[in-house]
Specification:
Number of helices: 2
Strand order of the largest sheet: 7-1-4-3-2-6-5-8
Oligomer: single chain
Helix content: 25-40%
Number of strands: 8
Strand content: 25-35%
Largest sheet: 8 strands, mixed
Structural class: alpha/beta
Radius of gyration: 24 Å
Number of domains: 2
Distance between the termini: 101 Å
Length: 160
């Protein structure tokens, strides 16, 4: 009888432990919370158009994720989108004259910020502003321009 209660208690404890571990795994995978945030610093960049860029989008350099977008706001004076990025302290030697561009992962994938390092000997630090930016290429705009150009060419040839 005593060993039966001990066995049931152990099984209950294991089920409780497994439930806690699954909950922690779900939070970690979903990105809803970060229990142990890595040391990092924040930099800003101003873009004319960010397309579909979202908070938590990756920040990459040479295809390697070095951080994530933490905030997107609109500058009320210049009407540019201000993107705040958190970059891991492991990457604290990024030249301060680097450029930032918004790209799409694949043809219809999510947007991300790509940093392109330049040649300065001084580095980005917490609160730095990236001066050189390249806005997102919006697929709908490109298709609209192509259709307008094609319809203009057809109209010009029909008048001849």
């Amino acid at each position: 009888m005593h060993s039966q209660k001990l066995l049931e208690s152990l099984v209950g404890l294991l089920i409780l432990l497994a439930t806690i571990m699954l909950a922690l795994l779900a939070f970690k995978v979903s990105g809803l919370t970060n229990f142990l945030p890595a040391p990092s610093f924040h930099v800003n960049a101003a873009f004319n158009d960010i397309g579909g860029l979202k908070v938590k989008a990756p920040v990459k350099m040479s295809g390697v994720q070095i951080g994530e977008v933490t905030r997107i706001t609109l500058d009320s004076v210049t009407y540019k989108a201000i993107v705040t990025m958190r970059i891991g302290n492991d990457f604290n030697d990024i030249p301060d004259d680097s450029s930032a561009g918004i790209y799409t992962a694949g043809l219809l994938g999510d947007n991300y910020v790509a940093l392109t390092p330049m040649y300065s000997k001084s580095y980005l630090k917490d609160g730095s502003q990236i001066e050189f930016t390249h806005s997102a290429m919006i697929l709908e705009k490109l298709i609209g321009q192509l259709i307008y150009k094609l319809s203009g060419d057809q109209h010009a040839t029909s008048e001849k």
